[in-house]
Amino acid sequence: LLEAFRLHFHQYHRAVNEAMSNPTDEVVLSRLHDDLQEYSALVVEHAHIFPVEELATVQQNLALMLNDVRIQYQQALDASHHGRPTVVERVHSGRRGRPRIEIDPQFLEFATEHRSITGIGRFLNVSRSTVRARLLEQGLATPQPAPFIDDNPAADSEADDILDPLLPIPENMPEETSIPTASNSADEISSISDWELDSLLLRLRTHFRRAGITMLDGMLHRLG
């Protein structure tokens, strides 16, 4: 039985040295720690079979190995962020306003190969504009021109045949569209109220359904 204890001790010693020398998964380290604790309990239970000096040496080395494995396990756990990488992080600048949303560049580069910007935003629970901004900052996308901006300034001066068709102003206006003229005050063109103006415009549109802004303005001037 003593030889079996000695054999297992050397096996655990080699396993701990290997774990300290090479990066090891936290699950493996946790299992190794549990095995060492179980072995230590068995050593205490069968302490009478060990020579006194050997027992002290074994127990001291077991305590050191347990401590080393515990430290290595914690480091592996911290490095893996508890097994979940931080993809989205909200960074507070200390100023007023919302925190800045940062997205892991490696994840973003991978995600853009498989999903659209909208799909990435939906998966990360952030807005599409945030994903787009991070892509531009990290050089994973190129700026695109705004799709609804017309670079031709002459287009703004062209007539709008729908809202303002070019129609001649009629010479004779319907009688029901006449309006009272204002007094000789220089500040007023007409004494008509806002409500009467709205009513007049409706009557004009009844007779001239194709009348646009320019034509209606001309008819109002003709009516006084």
Quick overview of this protein structure:
The chain is mostly helical and 224 residues long. The chain folds into three domains: 2-79; 88-92 and 99-137, no CATH class; 155-223, no CATH class.
Explain this structure.
- The chain is mainly alpha-helical and 224 residues long.
- It has three domains: 2-79; 88-92 and 99-137, no CATH class; 155-223, no CATH class.
- The chain is 53% helix and 4% strand.
- The protein is built from eight helices and two strands, in the order αααββααααα.
- The chain has helices at 2-21, 26-45, 52-79, 105-112, 117-124, 128-137, 194-207, 213-223, and strands at residues 88-91, 100-103.
- A two-stranded antiparallel ribbon has the order 1-2.
- Strand 1 (88-91) and strand 2 (100-103) form a beta hairpin.
- Helix 5 (117-124) crosses helix 6.
- The radius of gyration is 42 Å and the shape is rod-shaped.
- The N and C termini lie far apart (121 Å).
List its salient traits.
224 residues; mainly alpha; two-stranded antiparallel ribbon; 8 helices
Report strand %: under 5%
Helix fraction bin: 40-55%
Roughly how many Å apart are the termini? 121 Å
Query: How large is the radius of gyration?
Result: 42 Å
**Quaternary:** single chain
Q: Which outline best applies? A: rod-shaped
Low-pLDDT ranges? 153-160, 182-187
- SSE order in H/E notation? HHHEEHHHHH
Please count the helical segments: 8
Question: What count of domains describes the coordinates?
Answer: 3
How many individual β-strands? 2
The biggest beta sheet reads: 2 strands, antiparallel
Q: What is the typical, i.e. mean, pLDDT? A: 76
Strand order of the largest sheet: 1-2
Helix- and strand-based class?
Answer: mainly alpha
